[in-house]
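Contributing: when you submit paired examples, paste them exactly as shown. First protein:
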Amino acid sequence: MLSRSQAVTSSISTSMGEKVDNLLSEKVTKEITCNPCGKVFRYGIRTPRILPCLHTSCERCLKPKSSGRDSRVEIPEEELVADDLFAQPKVTCPICRKESDVPGSDLSKLPMNFYAVKLLELIDYFKLERKGRLPCIGCTEPAHWRCIECDENYCQDHSDFHHKSRATCDHRILTFKQILLSPRSLSTMRNQYCTTHNNKPLEIFCKDCNRAICTLCAVTQHKDHETKEVSEAVAALKAKVDALKPQISMSLYSLRQALTRVKTAAREVNVDAQVSSRKVSGMIEVCISAVREKERELVSDLEKKKRQNTEIINSQKELLEGELTSMQTGREFVERAFIGSEVEVLCLEPQIVAKMDELISGDCPTINSEVDRVGFSPSGHDHIFKAIEVLGKVGPPKPDRGPRMIVDDNGELVLLDNKGNVIRGETKELLRLLKQNIIEEELRVEEEERRRLQEEEDARIAALK
C-alpha cells in the first residue's frame, strides 16, 4: 500500500497532458451535467437547481420559452446571470414535464444542488493543483491534499501536521484525484455556520421556516417556532424515508415489470411483423407461381398449334415446289431440242409431243392455303382480380389452441388440452396426456392444412375457367 507521500508524488508525476475528463467516472460526469441541454453546470450561469420532483436542471433550461427577448437569439453565457432570469409563477421540469410552483416567482429561490456545485469546485481545484497554482491554506506552498471534514487544502507539511494533530487525526485527507475517483468521500462535510452569527454552527432545525439555524437564532428570531436539533431532525427524516422504502421498492418493481412487459410487447410486434411479412411473401409467391404455371401452359398450347400449322404449310410448300421444278425442267428440255439439227429434233418428236401433252394436261395439285388461325381470348381474370381483393387480411393472430403445460393461479402445474380444458393430476400422467394431445393436435393441423390446400386448388381452377 502506498504511503501518503508516495501517493501525492504519483499524483503530481502524472502527465500534465492527461485530461480531467479521463478521471471522472460516468456517475460523476452525470452529476455535473445538465440532462436537458447536456452542458456542464456553472455556478451563476448554469446553476444547478433542484425541482420539487427531485430532478436537477440548470437555470437556463428552466427559463420560460416565451420571454421579452427574441427566443431565436442565443444569449452569451457571459451575459446570463441568475438575476437575468425572468420571474415566473410556475416552472415545468424539462425531464418529467411536471409543473411546480416557484418560490416568490424567482428561480434562484429553488434549492441548489450543492453536491454538483461541490464537485465542480473540486474539479476546478484539481485543475489548479495540476498546474501547481493551488495555494495551501497555511502557507504559500502548492496544495496537493484536501481535508474532507475541514474542507481545506494543504501542502505536504501542513497535511502531515493536520494528520498528526490530536484534534484532527481522525479526519480524512485525500488527493483531489482520489476524491474525484471516489466522490462518496464527499458525504461527510465540515460544519456549516450561521450567516448571521458567523462563529455559530448550524445545530438547530426550524420546522416552521424549514431551515437550519444556530442556537443563538433559535432563542431570538425563532424562539416561538418549533425547532429540533439537526441530528434529531435528520434521524426523524431518515426513519420516515426508511418507512417509505418498501413501498418505493414495490413501486419500482411494478414499474420494472411493466417496462419488461412493454419491451416484450415491442419485441413481439417486431417478430409478428416479420413472420407475417414472410407469410404474405410466401402466399404471393404461391399465387405468382400458379399464374406463371398457367402462363407456361397457355404458351405451350400456342407453340403446339403453331407447330401443327407449320407442318401442314411446309408439306404443301414442298409439293408445289416439286411440281414447279418438274414443269420447268420439261419446258427447258423442249426448248433445247430445237437448238440441235432438224433430223435429231424429228427423232425426238414422240418424246417432245408426249412431254408437252403431259405438261398441258397435268392438273395443279389441290392445295388448302387456309389454316386454323391461332389467337388468345382472356377469360376468368375478373374472378382472379376479385380473389386478389380478399387474398388474406391483417389482424390479430389466431389463438394458440395447442395443448400445453401451464402454471395456474395457485402455482400448480396443470395441463391445458386441445379443447382448453384444465386437467390436474400427477406430473407423469400429465406428461403422458400432453404427448397424446400433441399427436392429436398434429393430426388435426395436418387435416386442416390438406383441406385448406384443396380449397385453394378448387378456387384456382374455378378462377381459371
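Second protein:
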Amino acid sequence: DGTVYTSNFDGELRAWSGTDGAHLRTLSGNVRKIRLRSFRGALAVDGSNGTVYGGSTHSRFGAIEVWSGTDGSRLVDLEGHPGHDVLALAVAVDGTLYSGSSDSTIRVWSDGLRVRTL
C-alpha cells in the first residue's frame, strides 16, 4: 500500500505515507518493556497482509513484537531468542518469518509458532 515503516531509538515503530511523507501512526510495544529497550534492531513487513514485525535489541527479552499493519494494533510477542538480541528479520513470499539473533541462530516461524531452528 506504499506505507513506509521506520525503527527508532525510542523503541517505537512509525508508519509513514510513501506518497506524501505524512506520519500515519506509531506502533508501540509493551510499556514495561519499551522503557528498557535502547533500539528496535530489526524490522520486517509481510507484503501479503501488512503484518509488521519488530525485533528487540535489549537482550533480556529477545522477542519479536507483531502488529497489524492495517490499524497498528499489537497482535502478539514471539519469544524465541531469550537472553539475546534479535538482529535480523525477513518474511518469505509464503509468509514464513525468519529471525536472526546474537545467539547465532535463525528461527523459522509459521502462523506465530516457531517451527525450527537453523
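If you have annotations for the second protein, write them as plain sentences, like these:
The longest helix spans residues 31-34.
The radius of gyration is 13 Å.
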